[in-house]
What does this fold into?
Amino acid sequence: MIKTTDLVLKDCSVHKELDYGEVLRIEVPKEASMLEFTPSGSADSWILWSRINADSTTGARGFVTQGTWVARRICFADAGRYAFLRESGGEVSSTTLTVKEVQKHHNLRDESWNERFAVPVSEAVLSFIDTRNAKHVLFKNGMMTEDALRIFGKELSIEVELDVLHVFMNKSADGVGQYEIHDKKGRAFVVQMHGHSYTRTGLSIPQLTVRIGIGVSIFILLFCCWYVRRCCNKTNTTASPVSEQPVYIHVSCYVAPRRGLTRYCNDPVRVCLCLSVCLPVLQYPCLSTWGTNLPSLIVLVVVVRAAQYIKNITKWNIPI
It folds into this structure.
């Protein structure tokens, strides 16, 4: 009978996950003579560092300092397997690196957008996706595009500083949307921009809403005045079936028997109360400001009620 042995191969690599642009640090084992790198999805490999032959690392990625191999501004091209080898070629240790995109949020209502992105400028492409889901390229081939100047004008500036992309946007800009920065391997940064959203009139949506609210309030008030006047005119031309003596007042409004809506038309107290409620809404569309109008509203109600009471007890012909 033939004996069989099952061989299981396990990956003993240390797994690391870094954001795009961060720094990779790997401790160098004492028995290691070289560092070999194999990119993700590739069978090719090359030497990044050698303890024996320093010339073999000329132009290579990273450097060794105080017993640690360091690579700054990690990008998608740095994702893969890093293996420290002995002089004989045997593996001492290995690290598998995964690079992920960076997600950020910014609010232009709080402050201007002023940020630097560690993306190779020769590969960097900055795109803007507006609230209508239309995509615009703002930076490509090392310079701003015509779309960037057309959409933002002087509100946006994109500069290159030591192979770093420096983006500045004024807080007053209409920049709500999503910004994406790509290198040749994929999307490195995503910035969700919040803040002001302007309409074609040049007004922000809250400002436009307030103006529409004021306009609607004015329309309602004018409609109420028109309806009251129309109601009074109808009572002036319609004979009353009830034999009650009509009374004329100085506003030339015929006071008929008070039934239904006619009672509201001919009762000045109710009309005054209606106007006292409408005017605060017209002047202050926000509900949070009702408290500032409450004292004047109370005074108005008290004065009107007092005048009505004096009229009733004295039987004076007070035109209120």
Notes: Residues 23 and 140 are 26 Å apart (CA to CA). The first helix runs from residue 146 to 152. Confidence is low (pLDDT under 50) at residues 198-203, 249-262, 279-293. The two ends are 119 Å apart (CA to CA).
